[in-house]
What we know:
The chain has a four-stranded parallel β-sheet with strand order 5-4-3-6, with helices on both faces. A three-stranded mixed β-sheet has the order 1-2-7, covered by helices on one side. Strands 10-11-12 form a three-stranded mixed β-sheet. The protein is 39% helix and 16% strand. The chain folds into three domains: 6-40 and 160-234, Rossmann fold (3-Layer(aba) Sandwich), CATH 3.40.50.1100; 43-157, 3-Layer(aba) Sandwich (Rossmann fold), CATH 3.40.50.1100; 246-377, CBS-domain (Roll), CATH 3.10.580.10. The protein has helices spanning 43-56, 73-85, 99-107, 127-137, 151-159, 169-183, 189-202, 229-234, 246-255, 271-281, 300-308, 318-321, 335-342, 363-377; strands at residues 15-17, 28-33, 65-69, 88-94, 111-115, 141-142, 210-215, 285-290, 293-299, 328-330, 349-354, 357-361.
Amino acid sequence: MRCNNILEAVGHTPLVRLNRINKGLKPQIYVKAEFTNPGGSVKDRIGISMIDEAEKKGLLKPGGTIIEGTSGNTGMGLALVAAVRGYKCVFTTTDKQSKEKVDLLKALGAEVIVCPTAVEPDDPRSYYSVAKKLAREIPNSYYPNQYDNPCNPEAHYLKILDDIIQVNDEECFVVARRLAKMEGLFTGGSGGGCISGTLRLAKELGPKDFVVALLPDTGTRYLSKVYNDLWMHERGYVDAATAITAAEVVNAKHASGKVRELVIARPHQTVFHALKTMQEQDISQIPVFEENIPIGTIYEDQILNLALQGKDLRKLVVREMMSKPLPQVPRTAPVERITQILSHENPAVFVEMGDSRFEILTKYDLMSTVASLMEQKR
């Protein structure tokens, strides 16, 4: 394929068949490798469509400046258009974006202004507000406003068919890493999420079905995060060779007969009552529940300190003295995440089993169940 400029290469992305990561599943599964666009993502498409429309309407004139708030990928698409057509670019982004993304935008000649993440969208410091302010102040500038621009979804509607199933961050990142190792497809976390959902859907399909999943962007944007082992470990995201979920540990605990009824305190009860319960049950902490929701924890050490200070435990209520609630994980969480939580000075963790039911796991529970579960899965 010969192109008069790099923009003509946008959209000519291949369909690639999956062969290993989908082992045991019946349908044919292909991916639309949008990360092979010149700017590394599906957002190259909207960069062209939004600027084409602006030029057509006279909103952007020769030598003008493109201003946009971006998390990286849309900025890359717009920067490509600017480089080919002679525009200047000023992008605002958030301080949570990877260094790779910012450096890539700068490499294409863009000016990048980094704004704080932890502010509301209408805060004057937000990357939305800063972009709007710059568009008002800089002559002959155009603000595409990707989030409200009808050319954004239109570009995908006209050229791409995709489906989305909601998955959590952990699945996105772990499956993205697995996809790189098993298929040689180097995509970002959103691509991992799409494949995770696709594999889930494929379990219900047959050999005559044909599935296409979208890989929106390249993994090179996430080398310091998703593809960084330390970053993943710090968040408890681990791609285990043998997957064991929190629910499986809970079920193994029940099967062993080592489960007793969850002991809780109520926020209106006295601290003395909580202490008495701890002594009777031979435990060192009690979760505090309001109706069916854990809202705090009260510890033996806390109560001891109060007594040493001469406080009347019969007059103090639990709500006034409780600490934050124990960490919670979904039933699908890998056991590695629980291990990571318990290694950071948390004595226990709650597993959300559904229907407002919580189970509690400790290090002892893991030690007494995980080894046997590993043997069963080998």
